[in-house]
Amino acid sequence: MQDALLALTKYWTERGCMVVQPFNTEVGAGTLNPATILRVLGPEPWRVAYVEPSVRPDDARYGENPNRLQTHTQFQVVLKPDPGNPQELFLSSLEALGIDIDAHDVRFVEDNWANPATGSWGLGWEVWLDGLEITQFTYFQQAGGMTLDPVSVEITYGIERIMMALQGVSHFKDIAYAPGISYGEAFGQAEYEMSRYYLDDADVDSQKRLFEEYANEARRMLDLRLPVPAHVNVLRCSHTFNVLDSRGAVSTTERAKAFGRMRTLAREVAQLWAERRTELEHPLGIASLPDAVPAPAEFPVMSGTRQLLFEIGTEEMPPSEVTKTAAAVKAALTEKLAATRLGHGEVTTYATPRRVVAFVAAVQASEPDAEKVSRGPKKAAAFDAEGNLTKAAAGFARGQKVEPSELHDLVVDGVEYVAVTKPDPGRGAAEVLSGVLAEIVSGLRSDKNMRWNDAKLSFTRPVRWLVAVLGDQVVPVSVSSLSAGRTTRVLRTAAQPTVEIASAEGYLDLLRIHGIEADPAKRRQRIVEASELLARDVNGSIDFDAESALLDQIVNLIEEPTPILGNFSADYLDLPAEILTTVMRKHQRYLPVRGASGELLPHFVAVANGSVNEATVRNGNEGVLRARYEDAAFFWRADLQSTPEAMKQNLEKLAFEERLGSMAQRARRIGAVALSLASAVELSGDDLVALQRAAELAKFDLGSQMVVELTSLAGTMAREYARRSGETEAVAQALYDMELPRSAGDPVPSTVPGALLALADRFDLLAGLFAIGAKPTGSSDPFALRRAAAGVVAILREHPSLRAITLSTGLAAAAAEIEAQGIEVSAPVLADAADFTIRRYEQQLTDRGDDHLQVAAVLPLAEAPATADETLAELQRQVQSDGFADLVAVLQRARRIVPADAVAQYDSTKLTEPAEVALHEAVQKVGTAPTALADFVTATQPLVAPITTFFEEILVMAEDPDLRAARLGLLATIRDLAAPVLDWQALGTSLTKEN
């Protein structure tokens, strides 16, 4: 291992990095060493490499866990500014360590980093070596709450993990640290004793006192304008807090206060450091970024029609952005070309993690010539009373560089103007495309954007190259520091990583020659076909329907799919299948292999990227899965020694939200709200008994070691642990159901007690977070409130028996429990939360393809989504029936003519005309109309004719105020009769007699 540290040090110093020493106080990561967290601030260039022992008390395992250490070794590299090729530099550093990157599967997998305590964040990747995370690779975007300019690249190697993979050992103790000395022999005692200290023996009172002293000292140093010693004391604060946390001595309130205090100090340190460097006039100088390339001045002349190829080359995009970006580029290209006169054929796009490719078929050689009409002042202002040209018209002519005699009349919307018509020669295809393609690159955006060494561009990951070829000619495109050519990049491990493109028409085949499949559908097909064959070899199969979301991710993680069959010990099948598949899917992106009856088999399929040594990659992935399953087995065994009640006590230590309290408080609120909702639906018998017990245990599994490690197993583990502790199946199922649905399209709770708990969970989220002003904004939704609201809607739609629980009912029940904690939940807040939830219902219907006018018509009923659903279904039947359009028309007309404040009361004795008397009698005969749409239509159909006659023969707004009031009151009665049924006005004029 020491040789590896020396090799990395040598490699990076040869590439301009200076070496600094590990920091002399505990840090949780190399990032917190001032050589990173402070030096990334400001404009000075900075290249540094150093070893950092990283101390994390919560990871203490007495040296028993093969992968967890309270002190692990990081090798930290900071490159400021971004050198433009940091991934390539990193891959070469792996070769310096002796890693054959041709044989191994090295992957950049999305991992966005944030440290709220220091106001720092960045975007980047985990780097995987045959499925094992070995490095964090981050483009720093903010530190200390300050936007970084220039952006720094941070590379953090996990040395123990790398060495375990290189040396083929399964426990950190077995790493060969130096000749004849193992890691365990050198550091095992310290690992055990520090674990004892952090987990068992650290004196809580002493640590609390130290925390206060360090925080006070940090504040004093800030007051003295000494950022470095202030930072040292903030780090000591952080470490002391971590010790207290590992001892279980931090309450939710204390956690929130400590984090807030450290965050404030850390941000002030950063700001003061930046100020001091400015005062010192930046001794290291000012970093320079690449210059912008000049705009194209010449364009090739084309003839005939040719295909356009446009490739945007990036570093690995997040899987979710690959498909979105392809669609966005297609839409933008289609729209922008439509704004030109350039003739062309179909626009097609493809995408891989490293490239977005657009083709435009049959591009014409140039735009056709045209005439351009420029409108000037109104004719009345262009000439005076004697018919002479005014200054306004003369100025317009000069501006257009024409003689006044060339002005002519132009009529627009009945108004006369003067205008000039000039020839507008068509531009060549290359000139048109140059501007269009540049706009597309500069307009690229994603859900979360970052910057790199190009000051004018921002996207999900750096854009590193452009290709623009029309037929066999390069289209000159300049965007900031990038210019397009005909050179593309293939796999980084290829003997020749860049290749020239002769023509647009041969591009896809050229990529395939180099192993890359640009078409996601074909990548998917290759993965499915090859994986099926591998699974068949072990008498298994893969449920690709169930694994569809995972398959989507895999397709967008690779350019050249290489499926590889792996195996694991059948002993792990004793663990619940959900644990095994969660680890495979969520952590490793492996496809589970199942037997004929759907049972899990001890096999999986990993999909490598490119040509690799399959035996090497298989062994690596098997080792990673084995380690993860060992962790899971450890947590499983530990949890089985506990009880649901004991686990629930752990919720006191889990923070939910500073103002809303701990997870234990939230769980108690959920239980109380669920029982309140049960009263609303008059729940009784076994269901009520099951709900009462499940409410007592709500969320208990969040206090289990398994769910702390694998959060997506919440609910699943609750059911498992409840069963094993002797709870009834009804209680166990309710605890599982309360986490459903987890996302759009997921099943909803199958039981009524589970549905009530699930509703209570989500109503508490909505009411609480809206009350404290934490509702979603734009794409930011940190508490997944959109998903919570959609879950409420889905549950109520699928459980019509719960229709007594309206959105207002549920939110009010949740608000009552929140207010009991002293938090005000105002009526406008609840109305806002209800409207937010109704919008999710509307979205579900429109996504399903329902007519938007009909959806709008039933939205007033969406307080009870099941009722709205039934009404919408009936509305869809009614619009096909005879007479319904006439009923809608007369009801709409009545609503339009009646003022909103008109009261549904009138003196019938004032009505004397036959048409109004007939309508009055018809209304009296209907009486109180039913609110169900089908019954309402039947009951009110007799009103159509008299209302029609009334409007034909009666002047509603009569001069006599009493008569006018009676007629308006009659129509208001009809309005109010129909109001509870639908929003009739929302249907507009979409219905005709032909419907």
Sum this structure up briefly.
The protein is an alpha+beta fold and 995 residues long. It contains 34 helices and 27 strands.
What structural class do you assign from the helix and strand content?
alpha+beta
Q: What percent of residues are in strands?
A: 15-25%
Whole-number radius of gyration?
35 Å
> What is the assembly state of the chains in this entry?
single chain
Return the average pLDDT rounded to an integer.
94
Per DSSP, the total helix count is: 34
Proportion in helices:
40-55%
Terminal-residue CA separation = 78 Å
| Unreliable stretches covering 5 or more consecutive residues | none
The shape, in one word, is globular
Spell out the key features of this protein.
995 residues, alpha+beta, 8-stranded mixed sheet, 5-stranded antiparallel sheet, 34 helices, 27 strands
Describe the structure in your own words.
This protein is of the alpha+beta class and 995 residues long. The strands form eight sheets. Strands 1, 2, 3, 4, 5, 6, 7 and 8 form an eight-stranded mixed sheet that branches. A five-stranded antiparallel sheet has the order 12-13-11-17-18, with helices on one face. A three-stranded antiparallel sheet has the order 14-16-15. The longest helix has 28 residues, at 252-279. The model has no long low-confidence stretch (mean pLDDT 94).
